[in-house]
Amino acid sequence: MFSKILIANRGEIACRVIKTARRMGIKTVAVYSEADAAALHVEMADEKVLIGPAPSAQSYLVADRIIEACKRTGAQAVHPGYGFLSEKAEFCEALKANGITFIGPDVRAIAAMGDKIESKKLAHAAGVSTVPGYLGVIPDEDDAVRIAKDIGYPVMIKASAGGGGKGMRVAWNDDQAREGFRSARNEARSSFADDRVFVEKYIEQPRHIEIQVLGDAFGNTLYLGERECSIQRRHQKVIEEAPSPFIDPETRKAMGEQAVALAKAVEYKSAGTVEFIVDANRNFYFLEMNTRLQVEHPVTELVVGLDLVEQMIRVAAGEKLKLQQSDITLNGWSIEARVYAEDPTRGFLPSTGRLTRYVPPAEDAHTRVDTGVYDGGEISMFYDPMIAKLISRGADRNSAIHHMREALDKFQIRGVAHNISFLSALMNHSRFVEGRLTTNFIAEEFPDGFHGLSLDTDTNERLMAVAASVQRKVEERAATISGQLPGARHKVARDWVVRTERTNHPCTIDSVDDGYDVVLGGKRFEVRSDWEIGQPLWNGTVNYRPLSIQLDRTGTGYRLIHAGAEMKAQVLSPRAAQLADLMPVKLPPDMSKFLLSPMPGLLARVAVEVGQEVKAGQELAVVEAMKMENLLRAEQDGKVAKIHAAPGSSLAVDQIIIEFA
User: Fold this and answer.
1) Among residues 12, 439, 451, 452, which one has the fewest Cβ atoms lying within 10 Å of its Cβ?
2) H or E stretch including 22?
3) H helices within 266-396, ranges in order?
4) Residues facing residue 572 across a β-bridge
C-alpha cells in the first residue's frame, strides 16, 4: 500500500480523497494555485505544493508541475479526482514514465473511452446498444447541417473530447445546427483544446441513467447498480439519485452486464461509469464512459456500502477486489443535490465572492456534506462554482426526499448567490416526487426560468407567527437592560403588527413557559423553540409541527427562509405600522436601454456595431464565464447608440456593455 499520495485537484473532491486517505493511514499532498492558497484542501493535506497562477491552464492542467510536486514530496501515486487531468491519457503515461502510479485506469482505457467517437465504435463492437448517429469528425457548419438532415432532427451536437455539459447543443432545425456547431466547437476548443464535434440522434423524453463499474488488474469487473441523473440544466447534472425510480431489476441487470462487457473490452481497472440514455420504453443506448470518479459517486456509496475512493486506491496498489457480483446489494435510497454559487433567478448565472456565512447542516446517518469551502472562504471566478454536494439517505425514496428537504432548510450560505431555493423547489415538485423524470424536466417545468418560490397560506402564517415571537423575545431582552431611567423603562407590549409586502397583519403575543402564543388573523399559533437571539437558524414547532427557518435581521425587520422560499417581515407597533403605510415606494431606475453583463466574466465578442438596428432575439454579445459561452440577445427591437466594453474586457455583474438609442 502507498504511504503518500498526491491529489491533483482542488475543491470538494480533493477534500473527499484526503478524508479516505487519512482513514487508510496514507499521507496526502495537496497542490494549489495562487488563487487557492487559503483553500480547504490545502489546509487538510499533510503537505502542500504551489503549482502556478490562478488560471487552471497555468496550474492544475500543467502535468509537468504535478510530476515535479510528486518528486519533491516523495508521493508514490496521484489521485486525479474529476475534471482537470483525470481523463488525460498523456498525463497517465507521463506519470508511469516517472515511476508514479496513477490511481485510475491505464492509458489504453482512458484513450479508448476519452474520445466519444472512438468509444462509440468500440461499444458497438462490444455488443453495447448505441445511439444512431454520424461518428466522423465534421469539418464545417454546412456539413453539420447536411448530416443533421440525414439523421433527422432533433440532433445532439457534441464535442468529441467533451464532458461536464460543455461543448453540447441540441438542434431542431438548420439554423440551430449552424449555431450549435459553432458554439460547441468554440467551447470544446476553450475547455479541452480539441474542437472536434460529432452529431447523433437526440432521444426525446430521455432519462440519463449511468452504471457504476469497478474493476481490478485480475480481470474482476463488477457493476454497482445505477444512478438516475436526469435532472439536468444545460446538460449539467443538478440532482442525482440511486437507485433510479424507473429502472426495474431486469433492465438494471441488462445495463450492468453491458457496462461490464465494455469495461472488460478495454481491460478496465479502477472505478468508472458507463452512461446511458434510456427512453420511455426502457430501451437504453450507450452515451459515453467516464474513466474517473463521478461527481455523484456518493449516492452509490451510500446505497452499496462501499468507499469508492478506497477501492480505487487499493486497486491501484495492486490489490484484488474482495467482492463478487453476488455480494452487491442495494440498500435504501440516496439523493445528491449540487449546491452551486449561482443565481437561479437570473438564469443560473455564476456568482463569485466571499462566503460571509457558511454553515452546512450537521452530518448524521441521513445527511452527508462533501465540500471544499469554509466560512469566510472565497468562491473564485477561475473555477467551477460548486460550493458543496449535499447527500441524503433514507430507507426509501420518500424518506431520502424528506431528509434532503430538511437539510436544505438548514444549509446557511450568505455572501454569494446560491441555488438552494431552486433545489428546494425540485425536492417539493410533485413530478419529481412521483419520479416522472426526463432530461427535459427543468426546461419543461420552468420554461420561463426560475423566479423563486411562494409560500402557501398555512406556511406563510406560521412564519409570521415565528417573526412575531422573535420580536417579542427581543423586546423582553430590551426590558431587562440595566440603567434605564425611572419612568422611561422599556415596556413589552402585547399588541403588534406583522407587516409583509406592505400588508399589515395585527396580532397579539403572550409569553408562556416554553415559548409564545400568537393570535394572528383570528388563528392561534403555539410557537415553541429554544432559539436564542443572534442565532441564524430557528428550530422549533408551531402548533406542534416541526419547523426550521433561516433568520436574518434586516434593519427594522427580518428575512425568513424556509423550503427555498423567502419572507421579509417587519414586526411593528400599531402606530409604526400606520406610519409605514404613508411611506412612498422607491422605484428602481429604468435600465431597459442598456445591455448589462449578467455575471462576472470575459467579453468574448460583440456582435453588433454602433448605429446598427437590432431585432428582438438577435445575438448582441457573448460573455464567457467558468469556461462556458453565454449568448446575450436583444429583448426588444432597437438601435445601438454606444458600445461601452470591448472584446477581451473583464466584466463585473451589471456592467454596461451596450447602450441603445
Assistant:
1) 451
2) helix 11-23
3) 297-304, 308-316
4) 497
Residue 197 host element (H or E) = strand 197-201
Q: How far apart are CA 661 and CA 655, in angstroms?
A: 18
pLDDT in tens, 196-232: 888 988 888 899 999 999 999 999 999 999 999 999 9
* Helical H segments across 411-498, by residue range: 420-427, 430-434, 441-445, 457-479
* Phi, then psi, of 458 in degrees rounded to 5: -65, -50
What backbone torsions phi and psi does residue 334 show, to the nearest 5 degrees?
-140, 140
The one-letter amino acid at 374: Y
Q: Which of 226, 288, 301, 629 is the catalytic position?
A: 288
Gap between the Cα atoms of 541 and 527, Å rounded? 6
Residue-wise pLDDT tens digits, 335-378: 999 999 999 998 888 888 899 999 999 999 999 999 999 999 99
pLDDT attached to residue 484: 83
Q: What is the pLDDT of residue 627?
A: 60
Asked whether the CA dihedral 440, 445, 451, 454 is positive or negative, the reply is negative
Residue 566 a catalytic site member: no
Q: pLDDT confidence of 163, banded at 50, 70, 90?
A: low
CA distance 128 to 431: 31
CA-nearest of 639, 643, 567, 642 to 606 is 643
Report the alpha-carbon distance of residue 154 to residue 173 in Å, rounded.
7
Average pLDDT over residues 517-524: 95
Positive or negative CA dihedral for 550, 554, 556, 559?
negative
Report yes or no: 20 and 309 within 8 Å, Cβ to Cβ. Answer: yes
Q: How far apart are CA 199 and CA 306, in angstroms?
A: 37
Percent of the chain with pLDDT over 90: 76
3 state DSSP class of 499: strand
